[in-house]
Amino acid sequence: MKLSIIVTFHKYIQYLEDCFASLVDSELENFETILVLDHVEEETESLIAAYKESLHLKVLRLEGEERGVSAARNAGLSKALGEYIYFLDSDDYVYEDCIQQLIARADETKADAVYGKKRYTWFKRNVYLGVAEDKRRQEDEDEKKTDASYFDGTMAEAETLDVDEHERAIHKLVWSRRGLRNISVLNILIRKSFLDENQIRFDSRFQLYPDMPFVVMLLKYGNAFSYCQEAFYVKRKHNDPITMPALSQLKIPTRMEEQMETFAYCREIAGEEGELRKRLDRKLVNYYSRYFVTKLRRSKKDKWRTTRFELIANLLNGTHPEVLRELTGYKKRVVAAGLAHDGEKALKISNRHLAGKKFKKILKNKNELYKYLYKNKYSKEPIEETWVMFETFFGKNYSDSPKYIYEYLAQHNTKGYKFIWVLNNDTKPPYGATVVRRFSREYAYYLAKSKYFVFNVRQPLWFVKREGQVFLETWHGTPLKKLVFDQDEVTAASPLYKAQFFRQKKEWDYLIAANPFSTETFRRCFKFDNEMLEVGYPRNDLMYHPDREKITLELKKKMGIPLDKKTILYAPTWRDDEFYGAGQYKFTLKLDLMKLKEALSDEYVIILRTHHYIADNLDVTGVEDFAINLSKYDDITEIYLVSDICITDYSSVFFDYANLKRPILFYTYDIEKYRDILRGFYIDINKEVPGPLLYTTEEVVDAIKRIDQISAQYEERYKEFYDRFCSVDDGNASKRAVERVFYPEKTEK
User: Fold this and answer.
1) For site-directed labelling of 443, which of 206, 294, 450, 726 has its Cα 20 to 30 A away?
2) Which residues are CB-neighbours of 747 under 8 A, at least 6 positions away?
3) Rg for the chain (alpha carbons), in Å?
4) What would the pLDDT profile of 278-314 be if each residue is shown by its tens digit?
5) Beta strands 57-61; 3-9: pairing state
6) What is the C-alpha separation between 89 and 79, in angstroms, rounded?
7) What b/e sequence results for 99-124 when a residue is b if at least 16 CB atoms lie within 10 Å of its CB, and e otherwise?
8) Distance of alpha carbon 639 from alpha carbon 45, whole angstroms
9) Quick one: what percent of the chain has pLDDT higher than 90?
10) Could you tell me the pTM of the whole model?
11) Under a CB-based contact definition with an 8 Å cutoff, are residues 428 and 634 in contact?
């Protein structure tokens, strides 16, 4: 048999399915897959049955006290019949030609081990292969820069440079792996006879860092290595460290001790001399100077300054002399303190070094200064009991539920509240609010000292809620698209999004919901366990205003809408996979405005309103007398009032717009991608939304021409939708929210 693939599995069956699917697509021949089940509690039989034949599955189970990845891999090795061994973690997957490339290179070079590249992602396989090509290319460029720096070559030369293959293997498998724990056996094809002859197995003492000694033994005893730059392995990180943490994300009290024990064993294997030993020692020095000494300062646990410092100081004293002679500057000074077992001196050196770096950051970026003042000055001053701070959409406009809560509170201000609005434009709110720009010095000041906060998005990551502060989170819509912990993937945000969100939502005292569906959904997807305010959406109060018709007329004049034309609102959302950077999304208008103008301009004009995340300016050249771009207009609720028909896609605007009981059309040209790859929906969009799904401009035109017929066709579904999602709104949501948060004595009474 040519190949044995060893897959160990403990939990998270959905990851394993991706792993197996990638092997099937590899179209391998003459191979076996050994699945080692390590005390698995999930049901696996159906998945095993589905892949048993195509992957030639052999299933082993660890029993009793035998557990952990070391024991599981050793069990797989003991049953492997292949000429080559390949380890694959159950939460990872491979490119379809990865293993074939490695085998071809091994047959050609007769190497003991052939290794390829690893790419890292937070995405499941179909998302990664479907939407992450730009990111993959950038990873390749970054790797070439690293290699070129080491080999003193150019980026283009780095992959083909004629260097000693054993030295290259040490560089690739040890030195270029960030930190100590990322030394990995993954994506290495190893000759089974080489492992057996040298008795190389995983050491069961090491549950958290089993790969490091194994790789060091490969490099110590192996004579022939080969690098296959065409073989790609995808290491999938876990984007949900709260409910589905990887082993590396678990907070294990003895992690540092095991890491140091593992390193000491690796040093013992490597011996006193040689490039492998020096590379290991350099990694230890980097770990100590970059990570460990910062824990001396930041950790509240004394053991970092006592037993753990002694542990690493002892290891530093075994550092190869050549490595010590290379040190300069800060690194030389802080290592010298470690060699002398002087923890206090190491801490002082580290503090000065970090203070210097902080000072340089402050000089380059005023925001860093303001954050420093927030933490070290303003947060030590008393909280002002009557100050209320408002922010919508990161300071982009004066709108949404915070606007309507503010105006109601200002009109009924019997407690002398002072109001602060975060606005980056030139809007001047009524009632004399103080306006500050987001991330300014004043912003930091009011964040620290205000008693109350009314936001519709998350607070800054560096905000730390003080005791006595009250946070009212209004959020910004009834959800159609899956959110946070209901999402399998987070393609549109930081990979740390779920962990960050979990921490930030703890600072919310109140969270507004517009309906029972949102209450249930928010509690689950945000893991929110403080007080829900199911009061309706304050931003929808305007749609129930007794003078709605008069207000609508005035708004049309203000927006420049012809009074003799009906109005179509087109309000699309952003696409998670199309972006320029954080919070800046691309958008290409798929609706043909010229065709709409030709067919509808006698009766209609169209308002374009994109999501606040979208950075592109829509081009209305040639249709200026038909299309009005109000994407920068502050308040979309006012746009709802002047609109006779709403066209959207997967935006939550239709939940709000339905309060008007006017026609809604859904232009869903990319529904399969959005539903199945990018997000997923909470409701069945084919059966529950109050209007037709349309896929071309021609279908949109036809639906508008037949809008009365469409309205009659969807009348019953619209009524059901309204009863489910709009029944709480009645024009008094702001009143209910204000009384609960700012005048609790009224609600309690």
Assistant:
1) 294
2) 739, 740
3) 30
4) 999 999 999 999 889 888 877 878 888 889 999 999 9
5) unpaired
6) 18
7) bbbbbebbeeeebbbbbbbbbebbbb
8) 54
9) 69
10) 0.81
11) no
pLDDT digits (tens, 9 = 90+) for 570-623: 998 865 544 434 444 445 688 899 999 999 999 999 999 886 554 346 777 788
Answer whether residue 134 shows pLDDT above 70: no
Three-state DSSP class for residue 332:
helix
Q: Compute the distance between CA of residue 374 and CA of residue 380 in angstroms, rounded to an integer.
A: 9
For residue 31, list its beta bridge partners. Answer: 3
Tell me if 540 sits within 8 A of 514, measured CB to CB.
Answer: yes
- What is the DSSP code (8-state) at residue 459? P
Higher pLDDT, 400 or 672: 400
Sheet of strand 3-9, all strands in order from the earlier edge strand to the far edge = 57-61, 31-37, 3-9, 84-89, 188-191, 113-121, 225-236, 93-94
- CA–CA separation, 402 and 472 (whole Å): 9
C-beta separation of 216 from 106 below 8 A = no
Q: Do 378 and 448 meet the contact criterion of CB atoms below 8 Å apart?
A: yes
104 vs 86: CA distance, rounded Å: 14
CA atoms within 13 A on the CB side of 197: 10
Cβ-count burial 531-562 (b if 16+ within 10 Å, e if not):
ebbbbbbbbbbbbeeeeeeebbeebbeeeebe
Distances (CA, A) of 281 to 167, 262, 271, 285, 369: 16, 13, 11, 6, 37
Q: Which helix (H) or strand (E) holds 666?
A: strand 664-667
Rounded CA-CA distance 106/110 in Å is: 5
In the chain, the amino acid numbered 315 is L
Helix (H, G, I), strand (E, B) or coil at 444: helix
Q: Which of 538, 540, 614 is nearest to 570 (CA)?
A: 614
Report d(CA 181, CA 304) in Å as an integer: 19
403-438: pLDDT as tens digits: 999 999 999 999 999 999 999 988 999 999 999 999
Q: Which amino acid is at 411?
A: Q
| Phi and psi, residue 563, nearest 5° | -75, -15
pLDDT reported for residue 161:
40
**In degrees rounded to 5, what are phi and psi of residue 454?**
-125, 100
What single-letter DSSP state applies at residue 649?
S
pLDDT tens digits for range 21-70: 999 999 999 999 999 999 998 899 999 999 999 999 999 999 888 889 99
Are 221 and 149 a contacting pair, CB within 8 Å? no
Inter-residue contact 619 to 589 (CB < 8 Å): yes
Helix (H) or strand (E) holding 36: strand 31-37
- Using the structure block, give the residue that is written with the tokens 């007329």: 553
Residue type, 347: L
At residue 490, the pLDDT reads 73
Q: Is 631 helix (H, G, I), strand (E, B) or coil?
A: coil
For the residues of 66-132, what is the DSSP string, one character each? --SHHHHHHHHHHH---SEEEEEETT-EE-TTHHHHHHHHHHHH--SEEEEEEEEESS-HHHHHHH-
Name the phi and psi angles at 233, rounded to 5. Answer: -110, 135
Distances in Å between the Cα of 524 and the Cα atoms of 122, 123, 292, 485, 487 are 22, 22, 37, 8, 11
